[in-house]
Write a structure and sequence with these properties.
mainly alpha; homotetramer; 0% strand; Helix Hairpins
């Protein structure tokens, strides 16, 4: 990961734009933290409002209040988006970055609903803004925790890829077999539907909306279930093995950079300075 | 963990209060053990009685007997509570501690039912007293076992926090998407209900009371199922990695305190005294 | 595990009884192996026959054939039981051992059905004889594999005990809460039934025969599901940590007894003799 | 794994047959890669076509187009099969190898449907050709990833065998018990059906098409669920322990063959040459 300018938004701008950049995009100054926390609260409330509005009984009783709140948040987000654009290091790259697009899309639905009734339903896209919280949380010791998880997942991506491919082949082949074994009369109306059923079964979800009726079908279903039950050991083993390595590797001396210290060690074996973050 | 006065209840009181304190709050003397075992049995029987009373057919046949038993246990618990108060090191802090509050709440419902019929149903709170058993079990080698589990969970709390946040964001976003894809006609009557469905699906519970009907919905549901099936590897990997460390760290020499002995070692590598408890 | 006379049945008897003992109870001589394999086949066929007889359509068509087969197996098992008794080292202790009791109970139902019609249904107990197969399989490299699993499970029994207790307390408390939240109208007809539902939900089985209807109930159910989804990491972590140790410990030099060799090592680091069974 | 002629198809043939062999069976030359990628795309499209044709509404609208596409792919596969036969090192051994049989069976259904209407449904066997993709993917770093998984699974095959046997015995015994406890009135119509139900429950799939109604049955079902919930830790522990070893063993120096390098190491501890593929 690049430690310098990981996002196109940071910049050492002079004057009020630099100040604003520090508050809006920064996460380390008191002002930047306060802004992020306030933003998270507004996003959270806005998402709760969108969720509540979808409940019929709530919409009937608090419809006007939710309507006003919706517009207030939309205007707030619009001002925020304009400020972000005005103080970003490279405004265009920010606007086209995933976070920039989500920031824009979070404001549009309410305006569109002005012309096209019902469009405010699309506000649900605002939920994605919550992902920004991850960056805020990165400040503290969650940085290391998230880093260890990402390291383990990145290190095991090829093995996980092989596993996903094996699972998809399996549900396609077994689902197709079930289509021929059970047939349309028992709910397996097409191969795609049978593959869907195979996924429901292999992942041990088991809705029960479709279930095998014939003896051969139940034997085949038993094989799928036992496979799904046992195969979960494979990704678990993959991630755990990498997590073991990542966990150990995380105990890095902040002074000299030597890593993989014994979990019991309090001082670096190389330079003798104190090791922190052994908790992870 | 503080090894001195971990609870506000212990005290070196003189006379009968000290004796009583040892029996009621202590867990190491014969009297203290006997009291704890007796208490566990009474709590267990009382909980079974509350459970049976909720069964219609049992209530009809053994109603009066259960009514008498209920009052007997309530009076017993009341006396016990008064004794606990009288001999606790700091009575007020005990009364306000979680265990103290549960001890009090375990007696109230029956009295309240004297004035408000039906209130005895609240006796279910008595179930929480069973948690006290954990402290009793801590006496023996379960101390180490519970300690290793707690150490592993505490060490991985930041990683688990990141994971829980990721899961909650995922079910909110995916649940909202399902609300728009499937709509109210197929049982996804509101966003909160769709999020509930997403939790049912991601955790592979799969009741089947709500299930996707459209093709797009079934594709999206398949993605959620496969995510839930595979993502379980993450917390498992986190806890396992910490458990590996905690398990190894637990082999500590009781003489000199040096830990992390080889599982095969019988003698401390530092001072040569015998190592015990390598089992757990 | 005691390596001498692990079962009360072995004995160094003279004459035909010693010979018979070697064949019937032994698992290492050619005769003993052949007998065990034959026995497994007969038990397997007998169990399949019992299963098929429970299927209505099969019973109607092959009733007489299954009846004859049933009696043939019963007479065979009776003769075998008498021979086992006659050549066991300590006949009484064999007769009272779990395997001895199962051997006896496997023959009785058919005789009892002579006087009490329908009793042959109890033949299902014969299924338990299949457990004897484990001992036969122990012969080969499955000995080590089974040994590693048992070592890991035995080493983690205290931690697993703490976990089981936590799960049982959790389903009791949460099940009781659901009884009060949902009530009898929504299928939660009693506390035991609600606890049953909590087990169905926490273990992510999710039949869907009972499912929460109220908002509070669905929120509580979501908590139970997420707990069940995440808590599986605890026993997995426990067993994996022990399995890591047991797996490594299993690479023991058969010459000098030094264990825990590197998985890559082909020769003992202590005495230089070749290490086998590193595969496990 | 044999590195020389792992498949009977490779050969150092002279002239056009050697060239063709390199393209059709080879995976390392540009031509071989291009052929494999093209083949995967055609197989993928063909499988999608078979799946779509099983959907009633699609069949009605695009029936003729799918019919033409089906014949085009069949003729293409026939030509390919003849070319494979003509340039394989040992044509007969290729034709009788699993991949060779699948290649043949992938072409037959359409021809058979010429005489026997409906036989084209058997084209689903074409899905198995996708497994050939694994060999193509093996080219890159997926080779190592797949190798680590296979090594771990192969190393734990005896332990997994013991586990599968334990699971099958358990579902047979517990399923039979449920047949006697619940009886035919509650859906447990025969022992095989009850065993099927036990598999559905133990693997935590839980369709809910059959579920226990009696108190004893629900208690027994709870035991099965808790067993299934906890037992998943066993295969997970087995595979993880082996994955730990396989992951570490995979860091082998490509120069001198010394393995098990520290995950942090960049240079071989034996000969000093750079280590690659530590990522896996």
């Amino acid at each position: 990961m690049l430690h310098k300018t990981p996002y196109p938004e940071y910049a050492d701008l002079p004057g009020w734009r630099g100040k604003l950049n520090e508050i809006i995009f920064g996460t380390e100054t008191p002002g930047g933290k306060a802004f992020d926390v306030a933003l998270i609260i507004v996003i959270g409330l806005s998402v709760v409002a969108v969720m509540l509005e979808s409940v019929g009984s709530v919409r009937q009783r608090f419809g006007p209040e939710l309507y006003v709140f919706e517009w207030a948040v939309t205007i707030l987000f619009t001002i925020e988006y304009i400020l972000r654009l005005s103080c970003a290091g490279r405004p265009l790259r920010y606007a086209l970055s995933p976070f920039g697009l989500v920031d824009l899309l979070a404001t549009l639905p309410t305006y569109v609903s002005f012309f096209v009734p019902g469009a405010q339903a699309l506000q649900v896209i605002r939920l994605l803004r919550i992902l920004r919280v991850f960056r805020v949380l990165k400040l503290a010791s969650y940085l290391e925790a998230g880093g260890v998880i990402m390291t383990a997942l990145r290190a095991s991506r090829h093995k996980i890829g092989v596993f996903i491919f094996a699972v998809l082949t399996l549900v396609t082949v077994l689902g197709s077999m079930m289509y021929f074994v059970e047939g349309e009369a028992h709910g397996f109306t097409s191969i795609p539907k049978s593959v869907y059923w195979a996924i429901v079964t292999l992942t041990t979800v088991g809705y029960g909306d479709i279930s095998p009726q014939t003896t051969v079908g139940q034997v085949l279903a038993s094989v799928i279930m036992l496979l799904g039950y046992g195969m979960i050991a494979v990704p678990t083993g993959i991630v755990t093995a990498e997590m073991n390595l990542a966990s150990a590797a995380a105990r890095v001396c902040s002074n000299c950079g030597v890593g993989r210290h014994d979990p019991e060690a309090n001082y670096c074996r190389n330079c003798g300075s104190r090791i922190r973050g052994g908790e992870s």
